[in-house]
Design a protein that fits this description.
single chain; alpha/beta; Transcription Regulator spoIIAA; Rossmann fold; 7-stranded mixed β-sheet; 6-stranded mixed β-sheet; disordered N terminus
Length: 437
């Protein structure tokens, strides 16, 4: 693995990189003085500084310039990545004590993040009883690298950037990522806002292979011994949702002999676990036709498992709310019902103003799902909406069930897995309830 590649020069084919010339950060750090509210937040190691909290600024800068933040007494509060295009004006890398943000600093942070995943890495060893080669290596803000996510899919890693401020530091970051992960290939993904800032990408694009051989089709990986494939170029997030790994394993233990409905199934991961757990029948619903095709392919990849092969797997395309209504009313004499229903919807609220609508959506989903759940059946209800607090979510689920005349008996509440740590309040987005009705 080449070390210390100078990415500000032409990309070097012999080193395996496929990159245009990239700039570094500005030579002058930006000095910022902030409001007292922002001071308190930074003293509590919050990773974001918003534009409206800045009271004085030494000079303008470009995405990726380093910004040093001071309090009213000119005491150091933090240093981070400046982004004049974002309401999150600074993504803070270092709090409390000054530090030199250089190759060694990034290498230490990256190594620490990967060390936290060592138990998962051990499962990837051939001698391990349970094999897992797909998981998150760096979880952005929660690993001290705000706006940067790294996911492993076997020997391919996917780097997702949520701000172009990282571009100026790739000369330090990429060699450290490749050395620590031992990845054979590195693929770039971008958030929608980062992809729109084309002038600061310097010719890079979403889905580009930054390092290693060309990508041909989906990448394959193992999760708890099951084989999956992911479209890391255009699939949702980086191609797969690793955060529900532990919840999928729990569903497997509950599925034996049952009929299972998986709503918002995407590529069918919950469905496949249920099938391996011995479900008689699994129905996977999603609005996306390509996602359901991926679900079918994932079942085919695991057809050598006797329980997966023996179970019945059905695909149901359509809007989840409409599908629930259709299943309930299509045959009033004998409506379709299930023993276990998994409801894992997308985020319903990206802002505080959208939270009431999200709670209404959860209420409707709980009511309609319970209308198809057999007495004594199990409801698995999840939320990935950070704006909705755990208390709001669980209160909504339980109260909606009570109003529907199907009170719930809690089995378990789960949150974030090992590879999705929570480092600050807004980083806690995943909530999942297992309950009987």
């Amino acid at each position: 693995m080449p070390e210390g590649i100078d990415l500000t020069s032409d990309w070097q084919a012999d080193a395996g990189y496929h990159l245009p010339p990239l700039p570094g950060p500005g030579e002058r750090n930006i000095a910022l003085h902030v409001s007292r509210g922002a001071q308190r937040a930074l003293q509590q190691e919050h990773p974001w500084l918003y534009a409206d909290a800045i009271e004085r600024q030494s000079h303008e800068g470009q995405p990726g310039d380093l910004a040093v933040v001071f309090d009213h007494r000119r005491r150091f509060l933090g240093v981070g990545l400046y982004d004049p295009t974002s309401p999150i004006r600074v993504r803070v890398l270092q709090h409390g004590q000054p530090a030199t943000i250089d190759a060694a600093w990034f290498a230490q942070k990256i190594a620490a993040a990967l060390a936290r995943r060592e138990p998962l890495h051990a499962r990837a060893l051939p001698s391990a009883e349970v094999q897992t080669t797909g998981y998150r290596l760096i979880h952005g803000e929660n690993d001290g690298l705000p706006g940067l996510v790294l996911d492993r899919y076997g020997d391919t890693c996917v780097l997702k950037l949520y701000t172009t401020a990282w571009v100026a530091h790739l000369s330090h970051v990429l060699p450290a990522l490749l050395e620590a992960s031992a990845a054979r290939r590195l693929v770039l993904r971008l958030s929608r806002t980062a992809a729109d800032d084309e002038q600061f990408l310097h010719g890079m694009r979403a889905g580009q292979v930054l390092y290693g051989p060309p990508l041909e089709g989906p990448v394959t990986f193992l999760e708890n011994g099951l084989r999956f494939a992911a479209d890391v170029v255009s699939g949702q997030k980086t191609g797969f949702f690793f955060d529900h790994r532990h919840n999928r394993a729990q569903v497997e233990t509950l599925a034996g002999g049952r009929e299972v409905l998986n709503l918002f199934a995407y590529s069918g991961a919950f469905s496949l676990y249920a099938a391996r757990g011995g479900a008689r029948r699994v129905v996977s619903q999603d609005l996306s036709v390509p996602a359901l095709a991926e679900a079918a392919d994932n079942f085919a990849r695991n057809s050598d498992h006797p329980l997966v092969a023996a179970g019945q797997h059905e695909l149901l395309q359509g809007d989840a709310f409409e599908v629930l209504k259709t299943l309930r009313t299509a045959d009033r004499q004998a409506p379709q019902t299930f023993d276990l229903i998994v409801v894992d919807p997308p985020s319903f609220a990206s802002s505080k103003e959208e939270v009431p609508g999200a709670l209404r959506a959860y209420k409707r989903l709980v009511r309609d799902a319970l209308g198809l759940l057999r007495p004594g059946g199990t409801l698995v209800m999840a939320s990935c909406t950070a704006r909705v607090t755990p208390q709001q979510f669980y209160d909504t689920v339980f109260s909606s069930a009570a109003v529907a005349g199907r009170p719930l008996q809690e089995i378990a509440r789960t949150g974030h897995a090992l590879d999705h740590p929570v480092g600050f309040a807004q980083g806690e987005y995943l909530k999942c309830l297992f309950a009987r009705s």
